[in-house]
């Protein structure tokens, strides 16, 4: 009643407001015609006026900028996903998206759309915003740089990183000498041109390399750590070298650039010996605080902006100052992590795509319109790859790495990606690199980054080919792999494996692995995720007296990676788990639109869907189990449901269960000859269920049920109502060759 009265009051209030508004407008008509153009002519229709208004608003600078951002973000996300699906770093897709939106594709296919969307007069705001994004990105790169890693491997990384700069740098200088008359003579003197060509072929993209190492789960291996440390050292050296090159290019000669280089060196010393200690004190103070205050965040941004401003004024570009500001941030990981999380998503998701597209607008592949120019492009690619491979591979071999690891480091140091584009854009804006050479370098950056993942896979395949043997067990003891998502599931999986294997488990090789889905996980966060993932499993392993190999990995391809790991390390049994949604999808299948969305997004889901589980069962060569938890607690009685003779091998897998539990064997086919008294083994706690009794009745009182994969398929086709009666259960497929 009170609500009804309130609505009446609200209606009367609106009516009074409308009446008074109309009365004032009526009185105001008396002033029409007193001012110039005060009244509409009445010749334009309301629809015409609306059309004119919308047209004007559509061409407004802010509207056009927002439309550009919308088009860029949608295109970049699509291409990033496609390239990640192909097993490539998402940054390659983002670079390609920039080229697609540029004159090479969109400008060629739809010149009118391209001219409207990227009108030259509208590009200034886009360029400024993209430069701000680069400043933020370089700040994040500086914060992600762990100088401690460089110090711990100082001797090796010094040799590898500098060899991977010196060799391609010299080859780049030679290449610049060859192409200067054609590409550089009309744009700059030889020294700045040669220096920019040399730095362009010798730079390594530390962020891309780190993502590839992380995605291939090499970050904890000696080779992976050495590659990351070498790339970090390379990054620091290359940016200092780039600062010197910019100073020389702007001054016109090495002598003229001397004062700029001296001032830059003094500024670096100031940042490391005065600013860094001061920031360290702030970091120590922050450790005692629960949150980061807005005042502190504002101060950090102020340091970033001032540093960028000073280096821009010095003539060595604002990006160097942003990178330096990130490097001198407090070494405390939690402090860096918080600051990185505040900046990284905005910089990477919103601002960087604008830079890729702005680069794409400068990349007109049609400029390479002769076989000669494509030959020059191939020459640049060959020299770039050869310089890095020779410098990095042989230096890694000289410091004691194997040929496999040395070649892998050579391939990884060849990734150029985003850092190459930054250098190119600086050279282009300074008028040193012409448009045709800019296109050649962009193609080279894409090619060298794209080749990294397949070449690493090829090296691993060739190196591992001779070591592949028939699947063994270690000294006759089983090799078990458990893969879990939630930290709470780790201890439970250990208990399940102990129920299955009993006393045999003490001598088994047990590996526990946790995957984080999404290779864009920040390396700073990945370290913490790794510790949190095993925080509950580790004490449980000690309580059970088990030695467990704990591993943390990041992936975009969980099913493929789990199958590959099981194959490569010859595991006898692999156990993973699914959430409540898995069983719910069978009990209450989605319909119509929900079904369509579910099917379309099955590979986007971070969890294990029906389709992903089916892929695992089809491709896993080891014995494979999927645990479905329905609030399991203590287990005293268990059931085993098989289908036919092909499942007999599972009896050896679960034979030791009867040492701890009362186990009842059943078949979905009722009375099955293969379930005889010999199947029950020596233990009297191992019994065969009455075939005349319904399966649902036999499940009563059981806390855990083991179901063979073939029996599971039979239940889904013929006895789906049985799913309601199931307690917690494990679907198990026997190892290939045992069926």
UniProtKB/TrEMBL annotation:
Its main location: membrane. It comes from Alistipes hominis. It is found in: Membrane. Residues 74-455 form the Cation/H+ exchanger transmembrane domain. Keywords: Ion transport, Membrane, Transmembrane, Transmembrane helix, Transport. The chain crosses the membrane at residues 62-83, 95-118, 124-145, 157-178, 190-213, 225-251, 257-279, 291-310, 316-335, 347-367, 373-394, 432-459. This is Cation:proton antiporter. It holds the Pfam family Na_H_Exchanger. InterPro entries: Cation/H_exchanger_TM (IPR006153), CPA2_transporter (IPR050794), Na+/solute_symporter_sf (IPR038770). It is a multi-pass membrane protein. It comes from the Bacteria.
């Amino acid at each position: 009643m009170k609500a009804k009265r309130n609505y009446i009051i609200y209606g009367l209030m609106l009516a009074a407001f409308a009446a008074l508004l109309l009365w004032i407008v009526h009185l105001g008509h008396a002033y029409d015609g007193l001012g110039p153009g005060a009244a509409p002519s009445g010749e334009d229709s309301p629809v015409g006026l609306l059309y004119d208004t919308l047209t004007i608003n559509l061409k407004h600078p802010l509207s056009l900028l927002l439309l550009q951002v919308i088009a860029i973000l949608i295109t970049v996300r699509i291409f990033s996903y496609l390239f990640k699906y192909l097993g490539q770093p998402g940054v390659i897709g983002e670079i390609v998206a920039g080229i697609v939106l540029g004159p090479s594709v969109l400008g060629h296919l739809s010149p009118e759309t391209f001219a409207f969307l990227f009108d030259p007069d509208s590009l200034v705001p886009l360029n400024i915003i993209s430069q701000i994004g680069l400043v933020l990105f370089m700040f994040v790169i500086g914060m992600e740089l762990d100088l401690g890693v460089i110090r711990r491997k100082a001797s090796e990384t010094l040799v590898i990183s500098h060899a991977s700069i010196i060799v391609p740098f010299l080859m780049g200088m030679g290449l610049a000498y060859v192409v200067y008359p054609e590409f550089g003579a009309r744009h700059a003197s030889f020294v700045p041109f040669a220096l920019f060509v040399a730095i362009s072929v010798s730079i390594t993209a530390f962020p891309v390399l780190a993502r590839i190492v992380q995605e291939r789960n090499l970050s904890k291996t000696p080779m992976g750590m050495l590659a990351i440390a070498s790339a970090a050292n390379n990054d620091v050296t290359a940016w200092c070298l780039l600062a010197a090159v910019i100073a020389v290019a702007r001054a016109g000669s090495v002598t003229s650039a001397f004062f700029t280089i001296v001032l830059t060196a003094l500024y670096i010393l100031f940042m490391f010996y005065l600013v860094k200690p001061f920031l360290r004190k702030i970091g120590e103070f922050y450790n005692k605080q629960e949150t980061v205050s807005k005042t502190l965040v504002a101060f950090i941004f102020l340091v970033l902006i001032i540093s960028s401003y000073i280096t821009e004024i010095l003539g060595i570009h604002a990006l160097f100052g942003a990178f330096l500001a990130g490097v001198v941030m407090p070494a405390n990981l939690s402090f860096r992590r918080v600051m990185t999380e505040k900046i990284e998503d905005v910089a990477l998701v919103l601002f960087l795509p604008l830079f890729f597209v702005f680069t794409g607008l400068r990349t007109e592949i049609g400029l390479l319109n002769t076989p000669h120019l494509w030959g020059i492009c191939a020459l640049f690619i060959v020299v770039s790859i050869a310089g890095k491979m020779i410098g990095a591979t042989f230096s890694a071999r000289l410091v004691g790495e194997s040929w496999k690891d040395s070649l892998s480091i050579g391939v990884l140091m060849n990734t150029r990606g985003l850092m190459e584009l930054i250098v190119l854009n600086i050279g282009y804006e300074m008028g040193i690199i012409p448009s045709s050479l800019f296109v050649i370098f962009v193609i080279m950056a894409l090619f060298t980054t794209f080749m990294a993942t397949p070449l690493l896979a090829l090296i691993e395949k060739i190196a591992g080919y001779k070591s592949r043997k028939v699947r063994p067990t270690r000294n006759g003891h089983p090799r078990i792999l458990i893969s879990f998502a939630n930290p709470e599931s780790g201890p439970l999986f250990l208990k399940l494996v102990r129920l299955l294997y009993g006393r045999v488990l003490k001598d088994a090789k047990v590996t526990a692995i946790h995957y984080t889905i999404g290779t864009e996980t920040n390396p700073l966060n990945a370290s913490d995720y790794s510790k949190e993932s095993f925080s509950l499993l580790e004490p449980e392993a000690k309580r059970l007296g088990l030695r467990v190999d704990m591993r943390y990995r990041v992936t975009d391809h969980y099913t493929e990676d789990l199958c590959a790991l099981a194959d490569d390390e010859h595991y006898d049994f692999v156990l993973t788990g699914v959430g409540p949604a898995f069983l719910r999808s069978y009990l209450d299948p989605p319909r119509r639109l929900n079904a369509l969305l579910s099917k379309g997004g099955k590979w986007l889901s971070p969890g294990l869907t029906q389709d992903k589980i089916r892929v695992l069962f089809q491709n896993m060569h080891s014995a494979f189990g999927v645990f479905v938890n329905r609030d399991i607690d203590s287990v005293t009685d268990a059931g085993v449901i098989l289908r036919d003779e092909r499942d007999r091998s599972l009896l050896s897998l679960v034979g030791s269960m009867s040492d701890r539990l009362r186990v009842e064997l059943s078949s979905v086919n009722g009375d099955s000859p293969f379930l005889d008294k010999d199947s029950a083994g020596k233990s009297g706690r191992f019994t065969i269920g009455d075939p005349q009794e319904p399966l649902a009745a036999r499940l009563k009182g059981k806390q855990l049920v083991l179901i063979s994969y073939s029996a599971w398929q039979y239940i889904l086709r013929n006895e789906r109502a049985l799913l309601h009666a199931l307690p917690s259960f494990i679907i198990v497929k026997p190892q290939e060759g045992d069926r």
